[in-house]
Amino acid sequence: MARDFDSRSKKQGRSGFFWLSLCLSFSIFLDISAYANNRILALKAGTIYTAGEQGLIKNGILIIKDGKILEIGDTVAIPQEAEIWDYSDQFVMPGIVSPDSNLTIFKRPSLDEIVWSIPPEPPGKNLADYPVLYSIYPEHPDFQLALRAGLTTLALSPPGEGISGLGAIIQPSGQTLSDMLLKDRAFLKIHVYVNTPFWNLLKGALDGANNQLKKSGNKESQEESEDKKIKEKTEIFMDVLEGKLPLVAECPDPDSVAHLLALVSQYPKIKLIIRGGPYTYKAGHILKGKKIPVILEPRIHIKASFANPYQEIINTVIKYQGLGIEIAFQAYGNIQDQKHLLHYLNQLHELGVSKDILLKGITIIPAQLLGIDSDVGSLEPGKWADILILRGNPLENAPLIDKVILRGKEAGPQ
């Protein structure tokens, strides 16, 4: 009997010890979680380029809490409990926002390569309801390479010609698509070519959506049995007509710009963004008059042929800079090209392009075009702490990134 009592006592003792250990472990976990959530970072920098109202701050301080910027300036008081990251001899700027990337989606030719060849005829299909989400694989290694190269936000475009589908915005970090996703319906992408069936396709989609908008005040008709895909496409174009969904139009030449603007001129609410080719600046006076922004490849375009043995060099960015048109930059090609974006900007600055146009063109301007500037694109209180730390101004020195910070956490060295 005494032996049974001792045995029960030992079992109860072991059981009590187990539950006590579990409670202590849980308590420690809660303490660590609370610390992580309330962690305050103070980042000191020699120069901070905010891309916002404060412009350039010398000997600045950034206070970060819960992954967001709490304060920024040159006279900010550092809280006693803050962990200090000292980069007093380095250059700090917002993370890069790519406005129209095909990274990991498919390999595409650059616009100037398309211009000098016969463009493919766009398919006679309206793929407005096709989401690029179907083509995103979070485990793709290019996402980590992009992040380490400073690309903290990516707007990904669907493949295909004509009415291509819905773009999405991600941040290239996370185990699942939901971890990465910022916006699933970010914009509608189209590829514009003159003298093709594309025009009837686009006009029909716009007219159909406009007619539906006119009927929107009436009761639902008997057309509820209509094919769901057709209805969804119409709703997407209705959002485009009302300015709720930006329309990103890839235009390889000035004719395609002029034709497109003539077609959409009757719909003043459309938020149009032109993805320009090497000669679209020839329609620049129209774009300027309508205040339409452009997305450009950050490079010099060169034309050479057997008929013309002399190389024709075009600095497209200078042309737009002279017109005063809002510019966002998107590096062409695959990850090997896109990770050298800052090098291309460095070269453009040497050729006379303004620093402010170049740096805003990869930060706040694309964020504004995509409607995400309340969260990213500049270093301002309330926005995510997406930050690049470089050894010097990337337009004045070799662009060397020492550290990438995504939402207040280090993403690793380049």
How would you explain this protein's 3D organization?
The chain is an alpha/beta fold. The chain has 3 domains: 1-30; 39-94 and 379-414, Roll (Urease, subunit C, domain 1); 96-376, TIM Barrel, CATH 3.20.20.140. It is 34% helix and 25% strand. It has 13 helices and 17 strands. It has helices at residues 2-38, 111-115, 141-148, 177-180, 198-215, 228-241, 254-264, 284-290, 316-323, 335-338, 341-350, 355-360, 364-370; strands at residues 40-49, 56-65, 68-73, 83-94, 96-101, 151-156, 163-170, 181-191, 247-251, 272-276, 294-296, 301-303, 312-314, 327-329, 387-390, 401-406, 409-412. The strands form 3 sheets. Strands 5-6-7-8-9-10-11-14 form an 8-stranded mixed sheet. Strands 3-2-1-4-15-16-17 form a 7-stranded mixed sheet, with no helix packed on it. α5 packs across α6. The longest helix has 37 residues, at 2-38. Mean pLDDT is 85; it is low at 24-36.
Descriptive tags:
single chain; 414 residues; alpha/beta; 3 domains; eight-stranded mixed β-sheet; seven-stranded mixed β-sheet; 17 strands; globular
Summed up, what is this model?
This protein has 414 residues and is of the alpha/beta class. It has 13 helices and 17 strands.
What number of domains? 3
Oligomer: single chain
**Principal-axis shape:** globular
Can you identify the CATH superfamily of the largest domain?
Metal-dependent hydrolases
Structural class: alpha/beta
Rounded to the nearest angstrom, the radius of gyration is 26 Å
Question: From the coordinates shown, what is the CATH architecture of the largest domain?
Answer: Alpha-Beta Barrel
Q: Which CATH first-tier class of the largest domain would you pick?
A: Alpha Beta
